[in-house]
Amino acid sequence: MKHKIALVTGATSGIGRACALTLAKMGYDLIATGRRGERLEELGKELPEGIRFLPLVFDVRDRDQVLALLGNLPSDWAAVDVLINNAGNAHGLGPIQTGQVEDWDAMLDINVKGLLYISKAIIPGMTERNSGHIINIGSIAGKEVYPNGNVYCASKHAVDALTNGMRIDLNPFGIKVMGIHPGLVETEFSLVRFKGDEKRAETIYQGYAPLLAQDIADIVEFALTRPPHVVLADVVVLPTAQASATVIKKNL
Ligand code: NDP
Ligand code: 8X3
C-alpha cells in the first residue's frame, strides 16, 4: 500500500526527532533532514519495518542546496503530504546592546529564511495537488518578548506571522497550516543557545517538569488525525509550571 509522505526538518534531535518517529509509527514514509548525517542514520534504524526513509543532509541556510534537493525529489518522494518546519535554534541570550552579529545572522537565517527556503521548495507540489498540511514550530518567544530574547523572539514572531500568512494565501488550495508554539521543552536547545555550556543548559530545566519533545509530537499526531474539515490553526503549549515566557514556578 502507498503511504503518505512527511518531511521533517531538524530531525536529528529534540522535537524534530520525536515528530519523525511519531510520523513513522503513524505510517508515513519519512524524509528527514539535518546537518548531522550520523544522527539521521541512527534515526533510520529506529523506524518501523515497511516505512520508506529518505535522509537528506544539508544546512537550511544553503538556499541553492535546499532548492536543488527538495525541488528535485525523486518522483516517488515528490508528493509531500505533511511538512514539519522545525529546524531552528536560539543562539545566545543577552541584551541587544551587546548582542553578537553572528548570532543574529544565525537565528534569522536558520529560523526564518531557512523555513522560507524549505517552504518554497515544497509548497508548489501542494498547491498543484490542492492538498497538504504544513506545521510550523514557532515558540512562546513568538507570542511574547522576554528580557535578552530580542532577536530569537523576533525570529519566532516572524514564524508566527509567516504561519498566518501561509494559512491565508494557501486557503484557496485547501492546504492546512498550523503553528505550534511551545514553552520550555527539554532538548538540545539550551545547549545550543549557551554554546555547549552543559551546566548552564541544565539549569534551564531544573526545579520543575519541562515539556518533553514527545509532548509536541503528540500534538502533531492529534492535528494530523483531525477530519478533513478541521485545522488546528494555532496551539500554545506550556509546561504546567510555566504561566508565561517569564513566569515559571520552580522548586529549587
Ligand atoms: P534541538 O537543538 O534539539 O534541535 C534543533 C534541530 O534543528 C536539530 O535537528 C538541528 O539539526 C536542526 N538545525 C539547527 N540549525 C540547522 C541548520 N542550520 N540547518 C539544518 N538544520 C538545523 O532543539 P529543539 O528540538 O528544541 O528545537 C526545534 C524547534 O523547536 C526550533 O525551531 C526551536 O526554536 C523550537 N522550540 C524549542 C523550544 C524548546 O524549549 N526546546 C520551545 C519552543 C520552540 P542539526 O544540528 O543536525 O543540523
Ligand atoms: C524556546 C523557548 O522560552 O527559551 O523557544 O524562548 S524559550
Give an overview in words:
The chain has about 250 residues and is an alpha/beta fold. It has a single domain, classed as 3-Layer(aba) Sandwich (Rossmann fold), CATH 3.40.50. It is about 40% helix and about 15% strand. It has 8 helices and 9 strands. It has helices at about 15-25, 35-45, 65-70, 100-130, 150-170, 190-195, 200-205, 215-225; strands at about 5-10, 30-35, 55, 80-85, 135, 175-180, 185, 210, 235. Strands 3-2-1-4-5-6-9 form a 7-stranded parallel β-sheet, with helices on both faces. Strands 7-8 form a two-stranded parallel sheet. Helix 1 (about 15-25) crosses helix 8 (about 215-225) and helix 3 (about 65-70) runs parallel beside helix 4. The protein is globular and about 50 Å long. The model has no long low-confidence stretch (mean pLDDT about 100).
Q: What is the CA-atom radius of gyration, in angstroms?
A: 18 Å
- Can you summarize the main beta sheet? 7 strands, parallel
CATH superfamily: NAD(P)-binding Rossmann-like Domain
Put simply, the count of helices is 8
Short description:
This protein has 252 residues and is an alpha/beta fold.
Using brief descriptors, characterize the structure shown.
about 250 residues, alpha/beta, Rossmann fold, 7-stranded parallel sheet, two-stranded parallel ribbon, 8 helices, 9 strands, about 15% strand, binds NADPH dihydro-nicotinamide-adenine-dinucleotide phosphate, binds 2-hydroxyethylsulfonic acid
